[in-house]
Write a structure and sequence with these properties.
The protein is of the alpha+beta class. The chain is 24% helix and 46% strand. Strands 1-7-6-5-4-3-2 form a seven-stranded antiparallel beta sheet.
């Protein structure tokens, strides 16, 4: 399976500090991510801080996911990096937040290896990009 790469930007009608707190909270993931059905912080409730981890349970293209995310890096209200540290896939995404007159321009960029799936490689790339775009569009709607 070749490496999957995704990128998408959305306008969110909330300030960067609000968006940053929301997307760094693992318990909020099921509200905006299609693959999530349960996510929880292991160390505490609420947003993760750099180096903290959360469990995540979901499903991607028919493949069950039990993974551990880590807030690999962050710059408060400007950028955060989430990376899977345990599980059947290798995935990392960077979110960049830019303030503007309408709230926040949120850009997500990343990808990785989803492992063996029952879909042709190009279909997986296309589906992963579409799902990523839908997730960020859902996030923008949830926060409006």
């Amino acid at each position: 399976m070749p490496k999957i790469a995704v990128r998408h930007s959305v306008q969110v009608s909330k300030p960067p500090n609000y968006v940053f707190e929301y997307i760094s909270d693992p318990e909020k993931m099921p509200e905006w991510q299609a693959i999530s059905f349960d996510a929880k912080g292991q160390q505490h409730r609420g947003p993760l801080k750099k180096g903290e981890k959360a469990e995540h349970h979901g499903n991607i293209f028919g493949k069950k996911l039990d993974v551990e995310w880590e807030m690999a890096d962050s710059e408060q209200d400007k950028r955060l990096v989430l990376a899977i540290t345990k599980g059947p896939i290798d995935w990392k995404v960077t979110f960049t937040l830019q303030p503007n007159a309408n709230g926040t321009l949120l850009t997500g960029e990343g990808g990785g290896d989803l492992g063996k799936l029952a879909l042709p490689d190009q279909e997986v790339q296309t589906a992963a990009q579409r799902m990523f775009e839908n997730d960020l569009e859902t996030l923008a709607k949830v926060l409006s």
